[in-house]
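Can't paste images in this forum, so I'm doing it all in text. The chain is below; anyone willing to post the predicted structure tokens underneath?
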Amino acid sequence: MINICDDIYHLTDGRISYAFFVKDGKLVHSYFGKALYVDPSRMNASVLSALKKHSFGFDWLPFEIGETGRGDFRIPSVAVTGEGFASTDFRFVSAEVLDDKPKLNMPSLRGKAETLAVTLKDEVACLELKLYYTLYDGALARHTEIINKADKSVTLSVLDSACTELDIGNYDYISLDGRWGAECGVNRQSVPYGIVTLSSMRGVTSHQHNPFVAVVDKNATEESGEVYGFNLIYSGNFAVNLERDEKSRVRVNIGMKLNGGGISLEPGETLISPELVCVYTDEGVGGMSRIFHKLYRARLIDPRFADLPRPVVVNSWESVYFDFDEAKLKRFISGAKGLGIDTVVLDDGWFGKRDADNCSLGDWVIDRRKLPNGLTAVIDCCKQNGMKFGIWFEPEAVSPDSDLYRAHPDWAIGTAGRKGIEMRNQYVLDFSKPVVVDYIFESMSKILSEHDISYVKWDMNRGISDVTDNKLYVGYVRGVYELYERLSKAFPHVLIEGCSSGGGRFDPAILYYSPMIWSSDDTDAHERTKIQYGLSLCYPLQTLSNHVSVCPNHQTGRTVPLETRGAVASLGSLGYELNVAELSEKDRAIIKKQVAAYKSDRSVILTGDLYRLVSPFETDMFCEEIVSADKKKAYVVAVNTLNKVNLPIGRIKLKGLIEDALYLVEESGEVMSGAELMHFGLQPEFGCDFAANVWHIKKCSKK
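Text version of the structure:
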């Protein structure tokens, strides 16, 4: 519901409210938090007066946009320069309530929803700015559009998706930071006076920072306290800026990041920012997560896959790497028979002359040395063993040693007169060029149309260097989305798993097309507890692609029990990354049991409400609980690290159950009330290092 009264604009859905007003042509922020009211008749004089109670001072007033050069000395959300001006002065022109959000030229939340569109103009610079506000299921989506109405070009250096002013308070911020193999570590710190910036200039969202931040009350916990969450639906360069001013108000600016000299905006040209999702709750960090999870399952993930059980896959990478032929693959496939695995995925090495990572990217032609009968023989073997087939591509890359690069060196991103920077023995293709996207689409389409393939793993393995201007960065990301769009329409049955050396491009825009993303190249179960915990702050478990790999682990050298590896990987989209042709009978029995149990719990795990009970960042344990929407089932996984003698382990108290309902704990046969499970709890037992406890809990009628 969008209410307009006395120049106050109030958006509310009964759960949250967002309000601002117009004063002397400027948009001044009033409120973002728990719903104030729903009925417009309750907009009484005292409420109106309170919302507009601000003295006018450019240097501290909470604006809906931050500008430069006109007395607002904080970090701006829009900055433009041109001939004759170095500052902007956007003033209110009009506001309109639209029946639906305008279509963006990039991923955004799906579904029809009432939208407030506010138009502002800078008459001197001849610029028009439009701010869009859309309420979705307890969240606010925002984006910005700028139009050059002048007859000369201007230079745009900042166009954030939103400027959000949080009321005076004592705040922490939570970010998801890390590196390759250790993505999305949970980092909670005080918001200091001054500016905190989290950003990526790598052309992708990066392993280092995720385009997410939460600003939380100092006393907020996992299940209580005020939390504001922000997540940018974008896959390229971004910046999150937090600024705490002298009055302890926090300004949050988030949007695409424009490097160096900005971007030229020609006469009549329009630039649209990515969409920013803004969440508020007073139910702690866990409450914020559950809002994001439900919203993304309903409004972001492709409806074809949102409620579809993810296939249990086995991937060839850590099993055979580049060293395979048709006979070895057939043994691998036969080894997966009877385990309950749905899909065999052939990873790198099937194309060109790809015996190592130093050649052939871009040459998406089957290597007949390894596969003399092509992919058909391998796919037929999958079918004969009751499974489907998937395949790996790295469509955005080209090897210097490739037929594609020899024919079209100009298709690689580079700077004239300088040798390009090789990373991982490859360059990045210039996806801002339609001819490049066309070629890659045609190459992938040939493979997909000629073979029965149900699953694609799309990898992207390096940052983008040698870029000459920001228009290439922006155009590149749009090219990636264009290829995704075309493949999704041409092959609607194919599930595309996103990947970028693991979690280097885990963002909502990729989830718009890929309903699951490879969480990390680090498959060690102990390390994965932290990575998956961090990702779950914002992203639904169904989007986390988690594999059980061999031990000693190929990344850490650590040995973790197979049961624990399965338990950790089950908290998302389960898969395997080990040579199933070489398993012992004991391990085959364990995996068969794991897969069967996972499939029986899959609907709860992938669509239930997540409660993070114990943080591996704060303790030597990890514990997560998923509760079905009807609260009839719960699935709980607890993992310890190094075992200790006479270890004092507290009971694990569950969340989200019905207090007066009875539940059966299948592992022990105990019947306990919801109140007992939540207030008295379960006692974990760990008999060795990296042990796991798994509990299946079901509502029952009597003891």
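The radius of gyration is 26 Å. The mean pLDDT is 94.
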